[in-house]
Amino acid sequence: xxxxxxxxxxxxxxxxxxxxxxxxxxxxxxxxxxxxxxxxxxxxxxxxxxxxxxxxxxxxxxxxxxxxxxxxxxxxxxxxxxxxxxxxxxxxxxxxxxxxxxxxxxxxxxxxxxxxxxxxxxxxxxxxxxxxxxxxxxxxxxxxxxxxxxxxxxxxxxxxxxxxxxxxxxxxxxxxxxxxxxxxxxxxxxxxxxxxxxxxxxxxxxxxxxxxxxxxxxxxxxxxxxxxxxxxxxxxxxxxxxxxxxxxxxxxxxxxxxxxxxxxxxxxxx
Length: 270
Description:
270 residues, mainly alpha, 12 helices
């Protein structure tokens, strides 16, 4: 049995060797090995219990990820931060030399779906956000204004422009309010991509998934910890914002009027 295991192990080691015929192939070989060592080292560091229990092969028969590496990537997706399913599927054939950070915020400017794909609560908030107001007035022009008034009964002229609002004062007033109104500034920051969170402030606008704006970060321990922290923060912000959206949608006319009253209060207290 030991001979069989040793033979198998020897074959696995041989598969790791690649013919080096030029500088480009040498660089590719070194990059793939570095990627392997990075992932396996992170696996041991971040998931020591799973590493000890794992029976997955540590080597691959080609230049793709080994079962052990794929196992680690799945653990990251399950326990630390999201890696899109399509990216994980691709990892079976192509290496993830860097961490893909896919946009997870409120991508209301998506060219394929657009504003009408947003939930009603988000649509109502558009003229209160800088990006949403600009979109309704500039990109959509008179059609945007007409759509908003026809849908919700409010003219944009009746809603104070975001540039005239004291945002810091709005945050203070909202903070004193009860939940979910205290998430009002958070929802606006999500629409404006101004949360200072790497998962929430990216624009994903594109015609296809593979041309989306995906930020790439190195497979380093400090980066993984940073992205994990940022994702935990992102989920909290999204949960708070969606509580506000559900509250708005429960009684749109009444509850949105409460937000407008808070919005206009910043003008009175200047």
